[in-house]
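Worked problem 6 (solution included).
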Amino acid sequence: MMMSNITVYSSNVGRKQDNDYKTFSDYDRFTGNRLNAKIFKVLSHLYTDTDWSIYVDANTTLNKSPEELVEMVEGDIGVFHHNFRDCLYEEAKVCRKIYDKEQIDEQVARYKAEGFPEHAGLGSCGLLIRKNTPEIARLNEKWWAEICRGSYRDQISFPYVFREINYLPKANHLKPNPYFTIKYGI
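Solution. The predicted structure is:
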């Protein structure tokens, strides 16, 4: 397969960076650094101009080449399965103990009222592989709207927005895995 051009990038506002990827860090329109950094993560189509983009959290390094990761993707987006949960409602229960409880409760209540099923899959959104297509751009925009309306915890809204996805295998981030390494404490 002929490989397209790929941008590997990260976003980091107000934290230490521990990788060599293209890093977006200069954004201050929101009151908190989480949204200032997250806009780059979610709206990849606005900040990259290559055929593919691979978003990597600031504390993560790739153990495979970008080309190998893109080749794993079936369709226009790839994300690894979450290691511990397969349900946005379970993720919300964990997140609400620490983060914006009221926003999370309103968000998941809305998803339930719309009939979004339990155990519909959950991605580990610290590594996102996306093809730059109009459909992915549309879904990115919808994802950003969900984050702005609900919780900034993007893993809650990801499966709601990206319903048709072939998840990549589970890659335990607590043990060495062949795909990526997460460095804690930075």
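Discussion: Strands lie at 6-11, 22-24, 52-56, 60-62, 77-81, 123-131, 180-182.
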